[in-house]
TrEMBL record:
Descriptive protein name: Cytochrome P450
Keyword Oxidoreductase: yes
EC numbers for this chain: 1.14.-.-
InterPro entries named among the record's database cross-references: Cyt_P450, Cyt_P450_B, Cyt_P450_sf
Organism: Streptomyces eurythermus
Lineage of origin: Bacteria, Bacillati, Actinomycetota, Actinomycetes, Kitasatosporales
């Protein structure tokens, strides 16, 4: 469903129209299947936390976003596509580094990374591309630091991940990129076993793989999931959040005046207002479910777009307005239920540090082009900016 011309930060108008019509409606996908689209916050939360709903893309009826994912899903599952004991087992293995207490220890490192990128931005040519020079390098550096993955290979990661996640990439190109990523990580795991360090990848290799608690394929898929989710969505959020603030300068003033709690609340509002996961959360019913006057039968797919759940006026009054003073803590940007994003404390901290430092150190930051001329990524799993020229 395309977004309206001139309104790239808002959900597709058709989504809003469907939300007004009913909490659940049938839609048609690229393969002719007709899953349920869940339009309202309450029903999204209820279904995302219902044991009769599965994220397992091996289940018949799962509503795949692209042909490539449908044809290659059996080659390995991401954590977000697992259920039950297996999901819990793997989630527990990576949980500790992403607890709020452990993430807070990364604050000085993240602050230094952000300050370094601001220095580089200011020292470089003007106008500069905010996406490539600022928004993308920060989460890439952070997740590489956490995992213990060499940052000098970030261009390779970025190119390969884009090829795998964008829907218009030819299947053979996506397959080649997926193989390259897989073999790179498998080789890196062998290196970490021989030369351990303090990164999460090394910890998983020496404590889980070497002891038989993980096999090599599971570890590769787990690290690949962390790489993708740890830099792409946060980079998009940095760029989109900055654009939203530049288009609402009154809210920059609110952000500058906010204390630490206020900044955290402001980030929650930006997460509610914007969306970086494009095709909605995908699920399939494994038993019959009655909800909102509809019967969802076992084997029927579900699509739950958080961008429209986050614009539900019954939960967020005047939802089309960006209000950094709003209590937006019930937003669905990180999901809901057992699959709620493990790395959300890290993403929150990165965004808090970025938006605080950026507008403090570059108070004159401005778009260098007309907003209507900005190029957006709208053909893959993620939504964001391809580039954003800025001046100061």
């Amino acid at each position: 469903m395309p977004r309206a011309s001139g309104c790239p930060l808002d959900p597709a108008p058709e989504l809003a129209e469907l939300q007004e019509r009913a909490p659940l409606v049938r839609v048609r996908l690229w393969d002719g299947s007709t899953p349920w689209l869940v339009t309202r916050h309450a029903e999204q939360c209820a279904l995302l936390s219902d044991r009769r709903v599965s994220a397992d893309w091996m289940q018949p009826g799962y509503p795949f976003h692209t042909r490539f994912l449908r044809d290659h899903h059996s080659e390995g599952q991401f954590l977000t596509a697992m259920e039950g004991p297996e999901h819990l087992r793997l989630r527990r293995m990576i949980a500790r580094p992403f607890t709020p207490r452990m993430v807070e220890k990364l604050r000085p490192t993240i602050e230094q990374i952000v300050d370094d990128r601001i220095d580089a931005l200011l020292a470089g040519p003007e106008p500069a591309d905010f996406v490539s020079e600022f928004a993308l390098p920060i989460p890439s550096r952070v997740i590489c630091h956490v995992l213990g993955v060499p940052y000098q290979h970030h261009d390779f990661f970025h190119r390969a991940i884009r090829a795998v996640t964008e829907s218009d990439v030819p299947a053979e190109v996506a397959s080649k990129s997926e193989r390259e990523l897989y073999h790179y990580l498998a080789k890196l795991i062998g290196h970490k076993l021989a030369h351990p360090d303090d990164g999460l990848l090394s910890q998983l290799a020496t404590e889980r793989l070497a002891t038989g608690q993980l096999n090599r394929h599971e570890l590769v898929m787990l690290v690949l999931f962390l790489l993708i989710s740890g830099h792409e969505t946060t980079a998009s959020m940095i760029a989109l959040g900055t654009l939203a603030l530049l288009l609402h300068p009154d809210q920059i003033a609110v952000l500058r005046d906010a204390d630490e709690t206020g900044v955290a609340g402001a980030v929650d509002e930006l997460l509610r207002y914007l969306t970086t996961v494009q095709p909605g959360r995908r699920r399939v019913a494994v038993e019959d479910i009655e909800i909102a006057g509809q019967l969802i039968r076992a084997g029927e797919g579900l699509i739950l777009p958080e961008e429209i759940g986050n614009r539900d006026e019954s939960v967020f009054p005047d939802p089309e307005t960006l209000d950094l003073r709003r209590d937006a803590g019930r937003h669905l940007a990180f999901g809901f239920g057992v699959h709620k994003c493990t790395g959300q404390p890290l993403a929150r901290l990165e965004l808090q540090v970025v938006f605080t430092a950026l507008f403090r150190r570059i108070p004159t930051l401005a778009l260098a082009v007309d907003p209507d001329d900005l190029p957006f990524m709208d053909d893959g799993l993620g939504y964001g900016l391809k580039g954003m020229p800025v001046s100061w």
